[in-house]
Amino acid sequence: MIETEYTKVPVKENEVEKIEEINEYGYGVRHVQSFLFFMCLSLGYIARAHLGVTIVAMTNIPDKENSINLVNNEKIENLNNTLVIMNNETQFNDDVGVLGQISVNKTLQLNVLENGTKELIPNNIAGLYLKKFENQTSIWNVHRIYDWAKPTQEMVLGSFFFGYFIMMFPMGLVCQRWGGKIPLQICLFLNGIISVAVPWLLAWGGFKVLCACRVIQGLAQAGLYPCVHTLLAKWVPVNERGSLSSYVYTGSGFGTIVAFQLGGVLADSRWGWPSTFWTTGIMCLIGFTLLTIFGANSPEEHSTISKKEKHYILGHSDDDNKKKSKTPWKKILTSRHVWACFSGHIGSGVSYVFFFTQVPTYMHAILHFDIKNCGLLSSLPYITAFFATITIGYLSDFFCNRHILSIKQARIISNTIGTFLAALCISGVSYTKNSTLAVILFIMTLSCHTACHSGWMVNYIDLAPNYSGAQMAFGNTICNSIVMVLPIIVSSIVTDVANPFQWRITFLLIAGLLVTANVFYVLFMSADVQSWNDEEAKEPEEVKLEENSEK
């Protein structure tokens, strides 16, 4: 008889018995690890999402009321595409009137904008004006306002997803081979160092350098979800996987909320938009330090975990050392039910990325919110979405467990709520000029959109729980390939960020994508476990025995 079962760790027999005897264990190291995983997701999304708000402050071009007026016989000369002001008294004006006057007794050199305008663009705090303008000739002056056209802004916003896309599959292999801790450390360290350096690199090399930095950050973050998923499989017992995993994955929403708040508040502060990059970088480096000191790939590698908790985790884990069958890619990619999930994934994922990259700009340019309120209001939909996710998921299970709805019906209804209602709300935004109503519709859009978590997302598990990760990885790859094209589409339509009709076209386009994706999903989805989910790999000894028996 061939033995095909293997123990998880080389422990003694009496220790194996103890593993099975422990049925409950309270707070322990696994909760600390779960917090670290939550922290990594949160920091990753802060570094990823804050630019949606920060770029509004970086490229803000105010109107005449917010510009600097030169008085008392100003002398202005245009020399080699620079604006030179000599021996003048400069008066600063803002929305609340004159903020102060200073005497300029030496030459101040300012870059003229690409469109030829000679207006001086102030920061929000008058105290920074003189310091900002006096140091404009120095590369170390990072408090600048850049005149980037909408296509350039889209290139900057979309560059992250280019790196994220091309490294997704390789990082999945890295996590499987070396565990999740090291890739997460690399992710936090690179994102931290780059974020701290971005303001100076941008002043030196312009938007092209910023794009390169965002690509590197995307490369590093490609392993974020595979790493966290790998670590959860090692650390979270099956009987606690629902609660602890849900807690960990709320890090993405929490990070987005913090990113928008942080971007708005810091951009409006005396330190300006560069402080958002610096703060994000420092937070990532602190997270890297905490993960390095307290994190571990598995309970076996943790130095201070108690034997009792280690036995509890291993005794309630379905992760073993048996050989797994190879992923049946041919059957996955030829299944119309899987492609139905891919359709829902694409519609949901593309619209979500559009939401957190474009809505802050829309709020500032069309709804005329200032930078601080722009960040605050942009984060409100994510706050409500956090609670909507929990509520909708609970209701879906409630109706299924009581046989009020079948699993298939629950998936269809959830996905339809997350697409059709979201499409109606986001379409309505483009037809209203009432800022309060627009914010309410944005909140409703994202709150409805979270219903997709109980639709196509969990449907991957319905179809093939053994290969749900492989399906998710492939669907995410397709989705991000389209996300990379999204900035090109948006910039070709929205050539003037202050034009509401151009924004309306983009909103209706996203709404159409949501509806189309859901129609395809509803027509071809299934909630039944597929036959290829139960294919098991045969051990080499079994193969040899079969060959011998045939002979």
What keywords describe this structure?
disordered N terminus; three-stranded antiparallel beta sheet; 3 domains; 551 residues; 6 strands; 23 helices; Growth Hormone, Chain: A; mainly alpha
Structure, described:
By secondary structure, the chain is mainly alpha-helical. 64% of the residues lie in helices and 5% in strands. It contains 23 helices and six strands. A hairpin with a 2-residue loop joins strand 4 and strand 5. Helix 7 runs antiparallel to helix 8. The N terminus is likely disordered.
Put the structure in a nutshell.
This protein has about 550 residues and is mainly alpha-helical. The chain has three domains: about 30-55 and about 145-320, Growth Hormone, Chain: A; about 65-135, no CATH class; about 325-530, Growth Hormone, Chain: A (Up-down Bundle), CATH 1.20.1250.20. The chain has helices spanning about 15-20, 30-50, 50-60, 130-135, 150-165, 170-180, 180-205, 205-220, 225-235, 240-250, 250-265, 275-295, 305-315, 330-335, 335-365, 370-400, 405-430, 435-450, 455-465, 470-485, 485-495, 500-525, 540-550; strands spanning about 70, 75-80, 80-85, 90-95, 95-105, 110.
